[in-house]
Write a structure and sequence with these properties.
six-stranded parallel sheet, six-stranded mixed sheet, 14 helices
Length: 345
């Protein structure tokens, strides 16, 4: 075993800086009331000694853990296979890192996982939670409310009950879907199908509503539910071709669904976009630029959604730490979407 040198203490920093231990504690823990020259001396001593605050002791003073739980209501097989989650987590991680906060990733697959996450959040291990990819019957909102943890949600809330004070970040799913379907209609397409996402999620419901806003009298057979995965897109596309072989366009609920649909169209001998035009949703570049042909899609800034979720939560935590009534409470944000035209439509 390698012997390690003892960790520098507050007392050692105080001695090096020529100030009291209490002054060092206030500087290290972000307190007020220390003159700037003393702050600089303490910081210089911290750097010279390599002092690292003891997090447990610091938490007693600040009542903050500098740790945020990121709860994704999906199994790990989905989270690590779908680039959507990677982009959102990257945005969250960048924002938390910039504010010296740790990210604690929690995934849920079943009831046991929900209970475990609820216990963890109620245990006081983190300052707040960022939660996304919720399903309509998910028990997580209730568990989080009982835990009393400040939370920002990714996506418009879809659960029943009191939503006062709920803060979320979302994209204009309905408006983006309208833009996608209007674009297909502008190309002269009249039999426009929709492969929906999992309809127990509000993003899928909003995109289906956007499709229906434009296709008011659409044949019900032109709508098939998928699950936001390539395999789901393949299954739905085969069903659509069986039901409506004369369809001439498809709006898919996301890029992965569109990628699956494109494979089935190619296998069936349909040319894209000559015979069938295809539009997706997300504009995830690892997917949209590598499909055959490259995918026309609705762009939402997924990474920015993650950054905003983290920013709103940290802003809310800072407000709680201040005197009551100081500052405005964070409000929900809905980001705009943009149609990105490529070769598929």
């Amino acid at each position: 075993m390698t012997e390690t040198a003892p960790r520098p203490t507050l007392e050692a920093v105080a001695a090096r800086a020529g100030v009291s231990r209490a002054t060092v504690s206030r500087v290290v823990n972000g307190g007020d009331g220390v003159r700037e020259p003393l702050v600089e001396r303490v910081r210089k001593a911290v750097d010279e000694l390599g002092y690292v605050p003891n997090q447990a002791a610091r938490s007693l003073v600040t009542r903050r853990h500098d740790a945020i739980a990121v709860v994704v209501a999906e199994p790990e097989t989905r989270v690590f296979a779908d680039p959507f989650f990677a982009l959102q987590l990257r945005g969250i991680s960048k924002e938390l890192t910039a504010h010296d906060n740790q990210l604690v990733l929690l995934l849920t697959e079943g009831r046991d996982d929900h209970a475990r996450v609820g216990r963890y959040l109620a245990g006081g291990h983190v300052d707040g939670a960022l939660v996304f990819s919720l399903h309509l019957e998910d028990p997580l909102p209730g568990l989080i409310q009982r835990a009393g943890v400040p939370t920002v949600f990714g996506g418009r809330p879809g659960w029943n009950g009191d939503r006062r004070g709920v803060v979320y970040v979302d994209s204009d799913n309905r408006g983006g879907a309208r833009d996608a379907v209007r674009h297909l209609a502008s190309l002269g397409r009249g039999r426009i199908a929709h492969i929906a996402g999992a309809l127990d999620q509000t993003s899928a419901v909003d995109r289906l509503d956007g499709y229906r806003d434009v296709m008011v009298d659409a044949d019900p057979r032109l709508i098939v539910e998928g699950d936001f995965t390539p395999a789901g897109g393949e299954r739905a596309m085969r069903e659509l071709l069986r039901r409506c072989p004369d369809l001439d366009a498809v709006f898919a609920a996301n890029d992965l669904t569109a990628a699956g649909a494109l494979r089935v169209l190619r296998e069936s001998g349909r040319r894209v976009p000559d015979d069938v035009a295809v539009v997706g949703f997300d504009d995830m570049l690892p997917v949209a630029e590598q499909t055959d042909p490259p995918l026309t899609t609705v762009r939402q800034d997924i990474e920015e959604m993650g950054r905003l979720m983290a920013r709103l939560l940290l802003r809310g935590l800072d407000r709680r730490a201040a005197e009551q009534g100081i500052g405005a409470a964070p409000s929900s944000v809905v980001l705009p979407t943009t149609l990105v035209r490529r070769a598929s439509a």
